[in-house]
């Protein structure tokens, strides 16, 4: 999950894109980039780091134009330490195209070879987004023989892209001299919506509605699964369904953890989804253990708060803030490398002794993935004087790798993949452990929008919604991620080795 945004406006857009990226920062902390277009000339600045660090005043001044794109990156292909893999990506032909992508292509490895052998295109990074932009460029080239390029031609190219690429993708692209294009994969796995500024005719496309609201845009609607929208340079809006059998099945993990609670995705309030999960978790808890044994319910900030609050309300126990979050430390789960994630839990969270001393506490988190957070936090609760420490997860056990844009490509790294409930409990050191039920979770989230046809919930149920991920795809994604440097030093070593010609060293 990355955060993406695109704007077309009568006014300069650099500041607007910056502001939207700040509102999407929770979706990617490793790199950020903006491209703007003035006439047909592109201006780009991208680098590793958070939005505030990447863009200085001089960089902002060098981004003129009334149309542009931006991205905050959380890598799921390639690695976090490569500046070249930061987005947007650019290709010079046809016309000049820039593109930002949220998601992960499951057949990037095969497409890379195909692009070289058949389309005669060279891919210079490990990023699946570079593959994606080249596929789009190739397909636009096929329809661009008759100029000028028409919206129908562009939609035909998107239809061809849908046929070639597999996996998850929410995309915003600019075609120089033509306009802004956005499309979403046929299952709508990753979110994408758009809104307008009241009077000016300005249109913003973004990963989450919070980016629209926070920049003064009125939410219009989500881009439908498989749909493409195109706004030409005159501000004319065009839309077309480009997939053969689209189906609305968004990623469940957006509702569990990834998205901001104040966003509405595919008609579902993320906050309400989390409240509902807290409610069913409470029911499960009541049927598993006597709530009378619990003195206090404590959330693990940040994302678990709504679920924990609702659970506490439901079981009639006080909800207390027992951990303080250092607001200057980012999200742990999306940090690259296990060692930095582990260190960050203690840097990020600190216990307030008085809420723990002599009490039986129920800690609630939105999810337990690698167990990094829960193991540390249970220990911290004990160190703070808790008598009994119970742990509850508002999401079911995460047992299967994700190949659609959440960076957990290997099953072995998941705490729940081959352990029983009792083994997980022992590993994290809790006195009891309660998990959400998969079907209950799906039921209470779907209840918020009956039009949903399903969920991409593979990390919980092992069912991959696109139905076309082969064993070779799993293996390629896993091997690709495993071969990437796990820390800054490793990245430096790889870079040096490549510079001195010892590829793969
Ligand atoms: O089992 P793990 O591998 O530790 O992953 C799960 C944890 O990571 C996330 O927190 P994070 O700190 O990323 O973000 P948050 O502040 O939004 O909760 C999530 O909310 C869980 O707390
Ligand atoms: N999390 C994402 O959406 C990542 C986008 C793309 N796969 C990358 O690694 O840059
Ligand atoms: Mg958390």
TrEMBL record:
Q: What class of enzyme is it?
A: transferase
Query: Which Gene Ontology molecular function entries are recorded, alphabetically?
Result: amidophosphoribosyltransferase activity
**InterPro entries registered for this protein in UniProt:** GATase_2_dom, Ntn_hydrolases_N, PRTase-like, PRTase_dom, PurF, PurF_N
Reactions catalysed according to its record: 5-phospho-beta-D-ribosylamine + L-glutamate + diphosphate = 5-phospho-alpha-D-ribose 1-diphosphate + L-glutamine + H2O
Q: Which Pfam families match?
A: GATase_6 (PF13522), Pribosyltran (PF00156)
Name the active site residues. Answer: 2
Question: Which domain of life does the UniProt lineage start with?
Answer: Bacteria
Q: Where does Mg(2+) bind?
A: 303, 365-366
The record, for SUPFAM superfamilies, names: N-terminal nucleophile aminohydrolases (Ntn hydrolases), PRTase-like
Show where the Glutamine amidotransferase type-2 domain sits: 2-234
| Chain's role | Catalyzes the formation of phosphoribosylamine from phosphoribosylpyrophosphate (PRPP) and glutamine.
Protein family per UniProt? In the C-terminal section; belongs to the purine/pyrimidine phosphoribosyltransferase family.
NCBIfam families, A to Z? purF (TIGR01134)
Q: Indicate what this protein is called per its UniProt record.
A: Amidophosphoribosyltransferase
């Amino acid at each position: 999950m990355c955060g993406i945004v695109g704007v077309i406006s009568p006014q300069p857009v650099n500041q607007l894109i910056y502001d939207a990226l700040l509102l999407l920062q929770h979706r990617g902390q490793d790199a950020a980039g903006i491209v703007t277009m003035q006439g047909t000339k592109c201006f780009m600045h991208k680098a590793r780091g958070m939005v505030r660090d990447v863009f200085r005043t001089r960089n902002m001044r060098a981004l003129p134009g009334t149309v542009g794109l931006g991205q905050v990156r959380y890598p799921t292909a390639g690695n976090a330490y490569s500046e070249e893999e930061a987005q947007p990506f650019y290709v010079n032909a046809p016309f000049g195209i820039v593109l930002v992508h949220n998601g992960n292509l499951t057949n990037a490895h095969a497409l890379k070879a195909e692009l070289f052998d058949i389309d005669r295109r060279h891919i210079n990074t490990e990023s699946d987004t570079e593959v994606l932009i080249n596929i789009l460029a190739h397909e636009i080239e096929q329809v661009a023989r008759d100029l000028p390029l028409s919206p129908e031609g562009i939609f035909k190219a998107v239809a061809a892209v849908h046929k070639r690429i597999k996996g998850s993708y929410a995309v915003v692209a600019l075609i120089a001299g033509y306009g802004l294009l956005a499309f979403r994969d046929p299952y709508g796995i990753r979110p994408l919506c758009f809104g307008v500024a009241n009077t000016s005719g300005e249109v913003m496309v973004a990963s989450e509605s919070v980016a629209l609201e926070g920049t003064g845009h009125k939410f219009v609607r989500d881009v439908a699964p498989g749909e493409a929208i195109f706004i030409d340079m005159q501000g004319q809006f065009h839309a077309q369904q480009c997939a053969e059998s689209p189906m609305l099945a968004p990623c469940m993990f957006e509702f569990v953890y990834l998205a901001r609670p104040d966003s509405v995705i595919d008609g579902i309030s993320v906050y309400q989804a989390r409240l509902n999960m807290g409610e069913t978790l409470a029911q499960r808890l009541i049927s598993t253990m006597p709530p009378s044994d619990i003195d206090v319910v404590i959330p693990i900030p940040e994302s678990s708060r709504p679920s924990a609050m609702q659970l506490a309300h439901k079981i009639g126990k006080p909800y207390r803030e027992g951990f303080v979050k250092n607001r200057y430390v980012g999200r742990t789960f999306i940090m690259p490398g296990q060692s930095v994630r582990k260190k960050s839990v203690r840097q990020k969270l600190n216990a307030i002794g008085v809420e723990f001393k002599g009490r039986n506490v129920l800690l609630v988190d939105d999810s337990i993935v690698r167990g990094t957070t829960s193991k540390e936090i249970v220990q911290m609760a004990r160190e703070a004087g808790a008598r009994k420490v119970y742990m509850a997860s508002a999401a079911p056990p995460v047992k299967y790798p994700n190949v659609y844009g959440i960076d957990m490509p290997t099953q072995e790294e998941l705490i729940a993949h081959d352990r029983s409930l009792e083994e997980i409990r022992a590993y994290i050191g809790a006195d009891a452990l309660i998990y959400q039920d998969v079907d209950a979770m799906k039921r209470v989230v779907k209840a918020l929008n009956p039009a949903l046809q399903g969920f991409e919930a593979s990390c919980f149920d092992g069912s991959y919604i696109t139905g076309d991920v082969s064993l070779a795809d799993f293996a390629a994604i896993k091997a690709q991620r495993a071969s990437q440097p796990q820390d800054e030093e490793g990245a430096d070593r790889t870079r040096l080795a490549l510079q001195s010609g010892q590829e793969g060293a």
